[in-house]
User: Which sequence fits this backbone?
């Protein structure tokens, strides 16, 4: 069930949280303290360029969908449904950890390599000594092991679970967690665990404001991110954006992302 405790705006047929990060974190912490079962994912301009029907299904299943970066914010202004602020996942997670530290909550980090995960746990415990506990598990496992792994996570009784695994696996895992009713907030945090573990640097604020965070990340890991970031970014710039604006300006229609991907023949949508 979608959460109805936040303001939202329509972005190409997708309901996105339209709150400041501070206000959103307050709402999330309030629900965490009630031990609600909560799921949060994000979208950005590169990710939506290759969305599948499975990913669209998670947009309906997750409680909160945020705009992970200024690119979505800037484009939302262009199409007339302006977001007041980006929902940059690392910033949201940092604020959540800060509040969790004050409330002595328990945090679990699921994802990244064994080395990076261990380092991330160690750094979190050092920076946030007030946490009730912090533990982790690397993200390199077969899905046949998932039930056993999640049973172990459940025994840890976390308030916050950060899942730093590639899509759509992290969304699949969170969907499974929701079905098991962990009473936790479960966040699809992507590369945030790599930031916590010191593998990559977080983008400076000026980079995020200029909406070139994707380029900053690409420069750090060009081989791994060539297709998911650079190619997808060009696909949005030269196909999705022009098609949307053409139909809006000349035909008076606000196409949804699904409709646009169908027009350009996205194979994963067939």
Assistant:
């Amino acid at each position: 069930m979608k959460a109805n405790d936040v303001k939202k705006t329509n972005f190409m047929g997708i309901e996105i949280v339209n709150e400041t990060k501070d206000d959103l974190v307050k709402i999330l912490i309030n629900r965490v303290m009630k031990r609600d079962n909560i799921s949060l994912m994000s979208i950005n301009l590169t990710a939506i360029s290759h969305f599948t029907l499975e990913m669209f299904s998670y947009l309906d299943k997750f409680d909160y969908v945020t705009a992970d970066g200024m690119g979505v914010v800037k484009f939302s202004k262009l199409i007339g449904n302006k977001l007041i602020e980006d929902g940059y996942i690392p910033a949201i997670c940092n604020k959540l950890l800060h509040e969790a530290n004050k409330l002595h909550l328990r945090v679990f980090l699921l994802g990244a390599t064994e080395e990076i995960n261990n380092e991330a746990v160690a750094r979190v415990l050092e920076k946030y000594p007030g946490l009730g506990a912090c533990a982790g598990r690397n993200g390199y496992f077969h899905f046949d092991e998932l039930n056993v792994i999640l049973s172990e996570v459940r025994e840890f009784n976390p308030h916050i679970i950060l899942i730093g695994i590639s899509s759509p696996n992290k969304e699949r895992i969170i969907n499974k967690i929701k079905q098991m009713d962990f009473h936790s907030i479960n966040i699809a945090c992507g590369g945030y665990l790599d930031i916590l573990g010191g593998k990559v640097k977080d983008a400076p604020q000026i980079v995020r404001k200029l909406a070139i965070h994707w380029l900053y990340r690409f420069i750090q890991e060009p081989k791994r991110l060539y297709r998911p970031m650079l190619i997808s970014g060009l696909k949005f710039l030269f196909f999705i954006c022009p098609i949307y604006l053409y139909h809006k300006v000349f035909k008076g229609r606000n196409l949804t992302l699904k409709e646009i991907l169908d027009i350009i023949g996205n194979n994963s949508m067939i």
About this structure: Residues 8-206 form one domain. The longest helix spans residues 222-250. The radius of gyration is 18 Å.
